[in-house]
Each structure stands twice: as C-alpha cells, then as structure tokens.
Amino acid sequence: MICDGGGSSGKAKSDLEREVRSDLELEEEEQQEKRLPPEQAVYAAKRAFGNEALIKEQTRETWGWVPFEPLLHDVRYAFRQVARNPGFAGITVFTLALGIGFTTAIFSIFNATLLRPLPFENPDRLALLYTSIPNTGYEGPGSVTDPDFAEWQKQNQVFDQIAALRGKTANLTGSGEPERLAGTAVTASFFSVLGVAPELGRAFSAYEQSAGHEDVALISHKLWARRFASSRDVVGKTIQLDGTPFTVFGVMPVQFEFPGKGDFWAPMVLTNDRSNAMDQVIARLKPNISLARAREDVTIIQHRLAPQNRHEEVHFRFVFLKDIVGADVRPTLNILFASVAALLLIACLNVANLFLTRSTVRHHEIAMRRALGAGRSRIIRQLLTESVLLAGFAAGLGLVLAAVLGKTLAGLMPQGVPEPGSLYHVVVSQIDWRVLVFSICVALATGILFGLAPAISVSKSTLSSSIKESGATHTVEPGTRRIRKGLIIGEFALTLVLLFAAGLLVKSFLRLLQVDPGFDPHNVAILNLELPETKYETGAQMITFHDALLDRINSVPGVRAAGTVGFGLPLGGGGIQGDFTVYGQSQPRDVVSKLAVSPGYFSAMGVPLVSGRWFSQLDSRQSQHVLIVSENAAKRFWPGKDVLGQQINPGFSGTGWCSIVGVVGDVKQSGLSSSAPLTIYLPYSQAPDFLKSFMTIVVRANENGLDLHTLRSQVHAVDPDIPIFDASSMEDLVTKSISQPRLNTFLFLIFGALALVLAAVGIYGVVSYAVTQRQREIAIRMALGAERRNVTLMVVREGARMAFIGISVGLAAGFFASRVIAAFLFEITPTDPGTFASVSILLGTVALVACYLPARRASRIDPMGALRSE
Questions:
Q1: Which helix (H) or strand (E) covers residue 649, if one does?
Q2: Phi/psi of residue 479, each to 5°?
Q3: How many C-alpha atoms does 277 have within 13 Å on its Cβ side?
Q4: What is the spatial distance between Cα 635 and Cα 640, in angstroms, rounded to a whole number?
Q5: Residue 797: which residues within 8 A CB-CB, separation 6 or more?
Q6: SS3 760
Q7: What are phi and psi of 727, to 5 degrees?
Q8: Measured between alpha carbons, how far is 193 from 586 in angstroms, rounded to an integer?
Q9: How far is 801 from 809, CA to CA, in rounded Å?
Q10: Is the dihedral of CA 654, 659, 663, 666 positive or negative?
C-alpha cells in the first residue's frame, strides 16, 4: 500500500535512505534537547519530520529518469492484484475478449479486403475509365469500344499509360483432363500500367498485339503449379486453348490476380467495331494530375467521339481503381464494424460497472494509500494501470479469437464471382501489423474507458469516512451511484439498438425466404460448358452438339426433363440486357433480358406456362422466328390485350421480327430481393450464334436424384474435349443467393444475444450490490413491519427504472440508427413498430428477471441477524 516507487538504482536509493535517516536522527536529537524521554522524542521527531514515504517519493520525482519507476511499480502492483482476484480478472478478461475479438475479426476482414493497398506500383494513381448510356445495358466497367479506347490512348494528355482488358475464356486440352480456364485479353501496355512483370519469361509487346501474332499467353502461378508442376521449362512450350496452339511467354507472380483469379492473359487485338462495347480501360495518372483534371481531358475526347457513336447520350465515368475494387462489400463491412464496436462498448460499460463495484469494496485500501501520502492522481494512475493490464490480457485472447473468427466469417461471406476479366473483390481475413496496431489501440482505449470512471469516483472519497466505515456499511457517494446508473442506462440503450437491428434483419430474412423465385428448384441439377469457336465455328455445328447432348441426357434413367439456357440462369444474372422494338409502338425506354433456351428448359426449371405454348423442335432455324415473353413484359407492353401473335424485334442482327407464341411466369433472374426483369426468350436454334456458345444444362430428376458424374459422362460422350464447370444444384444456387442476408442476420443475432446477456448481468450486478449496501436499511424496514412483497417491489422498481430509461433512450437512438441498415432490409420499413415493440418487451422482461433475483434475496433478509451483524 505504501507509495514507494521501488526499483531505483542501488546507489541512489541507498543515498536517499541514508539522507532521510540522517535528517530524522537530527530531528530526534533536537527533541531530546527539549528534555523529552527517548520514546516521546522519537514520536515527536516523526511528527515534525512529516510523512517519510511521501518525502522519498517527492524527492525521487525530481530525478530525471524516475518517471518510469512509479509506472513499473504500478504494473507490478497491478499483477499482484490480478493474482489475488483471479475470478474477477477472469470475468473481466473474458467479457472484453469477446468484444475485442469480434471487433478485431471484422477489422481484419475490412483491412485485408478494403484498406490494404493494391499490389501494384503506386496504386493510388491507377484509375478506371468507362461510359454509360441511359436506358440501355451499355454501362458500367467493361463498356468501352475498341475504337473509343484507341482514341483515348492517342489523344489523352493526362495519363502516363493507358490499357484495355476484356474477359476471355478457353478450354485447356491436349494433356490431362479438359479444363475451362478463365482469362483476360489485354493490350500490350497492361502490365506496364500496373507496374508488374512476369516471374518467368517476358510480357507482350505491340508486335504480339497485331493480328496473326496473338497466339501467345502468360499463365498464372497457380496454373503453372497445377498443370505444369512448376517446371521452369514451361516458357516457350505450346498449350492448346480451344484447340488453338498458344506459346507460353511467361509465368506471372504468385500474388498477381488482376482483374480476378484468372488463369491466363492473352494479347487483345483491337478492331474497328463500335457495336460491341466490352472493354475495360485502366490508366495511370501522370504525377501532379488530379482526378478532376483527368475527367476534363477525357470528357473533351468523349465529346469529340460523340458523333461517331451510335448513341446520342453518352455519359462519362472516371473513378480511382482503389475506390471501385471491393466497393460492393464496403457497406456490409461498415455496418458489421459499427455493430461490433457497439458490442465492444457494451462490454466496456459492463466491465466499468464491475470495476466500480470492486473499487468501492477496496475503499479501505484506497483510504490507507491516501493517508500514507498517495495523491489523487497516483490513485487514478494505479487503478488505470490495472484496467489497462486486464484489457491487454483481453486483447491477447481477443487476437486468438479474431484469427479464428476472421477466417470463418471471411469464408462465409459471398465472394465476388463475375464474368472473366471483370473487377471483383476477394473477401479475406489476415492478421498483419495493421491489425496488431488496431488491437493494441483498442486495448488501450477500452482499458482507459472502463477504468477511468471508477478510478475518478473512488479517488474522490473522503479519508475520514472511508477509514471509519466498515466494508459492510460503506456509504456509496451520490456521484458513484449516478455513474453506475448511467453506465446501466447506456448499456441498455446500446443493447436495444443491436436487438432492434437484429429483429429487423430476422423479419426481413423470413420474408425473403417466402419469396417465390418463379421456378421449382427441387431436384434440379445444373452444369455449365462453353463451346470453343475454333471447333464450333457455325451455328449449325453448335445446334448439332446441343441436340445430341440433350438426346443423351433425356435418355438417362431418372431424368424427367432437360433443357439449356445461355447466359442467364435464374438468380445468377439477368441474361443479355438491351433494347428492342415492339411492332406498332414507339421505341420502348425499357431494357429487357434476352435469353436463348431449349424447348425443355421451362419444364426442367418448373417455370409455369401462363398462356400459349412452349417452344418445340419444330421451331428450327428455317421456320418462322418465335418468342416467349414473361408475364410482366406482356402486361407492360400489351396491357389488357391478347399477347399471342404480337411481334417483337429483339434487336439482334439478322433476327428480324418474331411472333410471340407463349407467356410464362416471371422469374427472379438477379436474386430473390430483386424484381423479376422484363424477359423475352428465344429458341436456342433461332438465337444468334454468340448466345449458343455458352450454355447451362438444366436437368430435373426424379425424387431419387441424379449423379453429376453421369451427366459429365454424357457430355464427354458427345465431345471428350469439352470441360464441365460450376456443376451444382438449383437448391444450392438458391441457398448461395441468400448467403449474405443470412450471414448478416446470423451475426446480428449473435451480437444482440451477447449484448442481452451483458445487459442482464450488468443490471443484476448493480441491483445486487445495492441490496448489499442497503442491507441495514432493509432490515430496519422489515423490523418496523414492511412486508416482503413491498421490499421486493422496492428493489425491482429501482432496477426497472434504470432499464426503462435505457430502453427509452435506445428507442430514440434505434429510430435513427435503423435507417443505416435500410439497404439491407427486404419488404420491411426500418422503423417497423412491431419490431420496436417486441425487442423492447424482450429487453424489459430480461431486466425484470435480472432485478427480481436480488430483490427476492432482499425480501428474505433476517432483520435481527442483519442488525446484530452491524
């Protein structure tokens, strides 16, 4: 208890001891000269000399190196206090570790996914250029034509370099199992723009970008290891991509995965085609050129090109690359980070209450320390050292928890899987130096946060009252009581906000599960394949493969129906988006989804027929061109009219006018939470050739299911060089489509449940401690005739008042905070009164139960026994 700094150098300490002893002996001699007996002279000398320990400490404070000495003493003393109270320390560390662990886990994902610099040279200077045209599918990254890119590259004055890229797929054959590879076609400047060089070999030059010389490739490090056993002899070898020999120029570094997790990069040969906008354009800004200056320059170029474009309204877009990569997961990570921060704050408030309770129990110790000369600042520092030490232990345990939780949560979050060559995020979790620094800062902040209020409160207590009072009858000062009540009110308010968010997400998710997707996903298998244009050059060849494959699959035992769809499986995308023409009407401003399907597709998917007929084998290339439209499209363009026989030009070259022969139910193409798009279906045999090359096979089996290996064997029986990829079931696809809302709901339920437990423990501790402090008062009340029921109500009323105020504050805060998660809700308002009422009742009920337990104990106090103990 003595405020002895300890730990000073041996010589300095011994010198100080001798000096103090010498001064004290001189004071004793002076007292003895006053003819006082020796014993009285000693006491008189000590009174005249003053507090020996305080004088030593004040002397040491004048030494330049001594500020670290009291700190070390405080740390050693804090360790002793922790060792003396393992139960209290364990509860504190575990409570904080939960909050710090979840917070650090979410931050590790946030950091690895969004905060880490892109692995390129000066990534902050990289920008993405694209254009958009209103009311068409022609917008967003990947919306630039080859001629526009060439003009931007020629006329710009603000970029060091500019490069184009486009998604590309290919079937790897020739050795081993056929494999579909996802790659990117890039201009020769692509690698220099990013500042990345191959690990083996060399990058492309302008020569390889010219027609006739483009059959070369750079392969990814993973493909090199997987298919070529990391052999350095791979450079110069020939591989078969879609049946065409490609020379391997080199291998990219292991960490290079741009724009996505691709397998190869091939040269892009530019054309003069302005009708097909598929390029993404990436550029590196010159030094000292701002984004605004670059926008002005490229906008001028765009205006020059406007007369040459087939659309009049072309809108220019220009963003930094770092701002668009991972932008789709940023809102989710932001809301999760805010929620775990609230959970951490609740844990801090709970632990602050525990510390306040423990510090009031230690009032005798604190009073003795002050009597021996410890100042108020020293007492506060000592108590803060203990709280920061416990927070440090919690941070260590929280880091271990975060390492496990982070990888688990990252694995559960949906990963970006767009078309090959497009930008997307990869949600990962990684403990690096930023996460460690974050964890240390959180530990310091939480240690100070939950330790400061108790330390200040205890340091204000009066010496005389603290020394005279016993532990059982220690009077809690009004300020301390107000702090305890304030902590509980804040804890309940934050808990209600988290519970309200969880309730909204649960209600939203339940409604999402009730949505009709427009098809029956049960017992439906799906598998994808792509026909290489080098082998299947004409539409007739593709139709021959398509029909032969469906004939074989339909003959497999257990198959009830089979069909195909190109570029537009439900819940996986909206098909080809674009404009069209309705016969006899002005040009619609709407965009429709255009899908090529086989006659058996609707039966295999379980899409209902509203009117008319399905496609049949008679709808061939030579017969009249026909269409089937979705029900919402029929109502949109022919309200109250007979749709059958109406004509549409789908906008494809060579397709012409098509007669509508059927209407089918609306299908959720982009997700359960999205509205069903206006859709037109073309027969596979009459669709443009580019819609025939990529196909998804849909097979409905009987109740016994179907082995995917059997379906693979049917494909390879028709063409052994066609690889199958992304084989799955529609039920899995439906489950995957709602994985993000399910994860959000699950996490908020966990956060809400933890907050509810912490709030219940917090109010129980406050009320229980209040009963202990008021034991004498309660005993007197009962001795004077107070009934047990009245005592119970008195105690419960006090706790319920704090809970009610906290719930009221939480309702006000939740009203505004709920708007933050409005974007994550489906068919429910962010201020749903039913959810407000239900979570308030739940939290209030938990508070009453937590208050009732100590109230029941208070009502059973023996008045005579309690008074006798006093």
A1: strand 647-649
A2: -60, -40
A3: 23
A4: 7
A5: none
A6: helix
A7: -70, 135
A8: 45
A9: 12
A10: positive
Q: Taking the CB of residue 480, how many other CB atoms lie within 10 A of it?
A: 21
Give yes or no for residue 8 having a pLDDT over 50. Answer: no
Q: CB burial class (10 A; 0-12, 13-18, 19+) of residue 427?
A: buried
The DSSP secondary structure of 446-500, one letter per residue, reads: HHHHHHHHHHHHHHTS-HHHHHHS-TTTPPPPHHHHHHHHHHHHHHHHHHHHHHH
Which one-letter amino acid corresponds to residue 27?
E
Distance CA 259, CA 801 (A): 57
Provide the residue type at 225 as one letter: A
- How long a stretch of residues is the chain? 870
Q: What is the pLDDT of residues 99-123, one digit of tens each?
A: 898 899 888 888 887 788 788 888 8
CA distances (Å), origin 640, targets 92, 706, 824: 69, 43, 36
Task: Kindly report which listed range (372-381, 434-443, 544-553, 683-692) carries the lowest average pLDDT score.
Answer: 372-381
pLDDT at 419: 47
φ/ψ of residue 71, rounded to 5: -65, -45
Q: Give how far the C-alpha of residue 114 lies from the chain's centroid of Cα atoms, to the nearest Å.
A: 10
* Residues β-bridged to residue 659: 626, 647
- Segment 31-62, tens digit of pLDDT: 676 767 777 777 776 677 666 666 666 665 55
Amino acid at 699: V
Judged against a pLDDT cut of 70, whether residue 849 lies above it is answered with yes
- DSSP H helical ranges for 111-230: 146-155, 190-194, 221-228
- Average the pLDDT over 354-383 and give the result: 70
How is the chain split into domains, by residue range? 1-64, 123-324, 330-514+739-869, 532-721
Residue 854's pLDDT is 86
Task: Say if residues 512 and 826 touch (Cβ distance below 8 Å).
Answer: yes
Residue of 667, 561, 684, 553 whose CA lies nearest to 615: 684
Identify the pLDDT of residue 628: 96
Give the number of other CB atoms < 10 A from CB of residue 495. Answer: 31
Task: Tally helices (H) and strands (E) across the chain.
Answer: 26, 22
Q: What sign for the dihedral angle of Cα 470, 472, 473, 478?
A: positive
Locate the DSSP E strands across 439-578.
Answer: 524-530, 559-566, 576-578
- CA geometry: angle 420, 425, 429, nearest 5 deg: 135
3-state SS, residue 654: coil
Query: And the tokens for 578?
Result: 């674009």
Only one residue has tokens 């190196």, namely 65
Q: Which residue has the tokens 């219940």?
A: 760
Strand, helix or coil for residue 29: helix
Torsion angle defined by CA atoms of residues 67, 70, 75 and 81, in that order, rounded to the nearest 10 degrees: -160
Q: How far apart are CA 465 and CA 473, in angstroms?
A: 11
Q: Residue 740: which of 567, 518, 571 has the closest Cα?
A: 571
Chain segment 136-158, per-residue pLDDT in tens: 544 555 578 888 888 888 888 88
Residue partners of 508: CB distance under 8 A and separation at least 6: 741, 745, 824, 825, 826, 827, 828
> Are 630 and 608 a contacting pair, CB within 8 Å?
no
What is the spatial distance between Cα 525 and Cα 726, in angstroms, rounded to a whole number? 11
Cα within 13 Å of Cα(606), Cβ side = 17
Contact 133, 139 (CB under 8 A): yes
Q: Is the peptide bond before 259 cis (omega within 30 degrees of 0)?
A: yes
CA nearest to 92, candidates 272, 355, 479: 355
Contact 562, 732 (CB under 8 A): no
Four-CA torsion 469, 470, 472, 476, nearest 10 degrees: 30
Q: What would the DSSP string read from start to end of 282-330?
A: EEEEPTT--HHHHHHHHHHHHHHHGGGSS-S--EEEEEEHHHHTTTTTH
Distant-in-sequence, close-in-space partners of 502: CB < 8 Å, separation ≥ 6: 745, 748, 749, 751, 752, 839
Q: Write out the E strands in 666-760.
A: 679-683, 694-701, 725-729
* Phi–psi pair at 357, nearest 5 degrees: -65, -45
Model pTM?
0.80
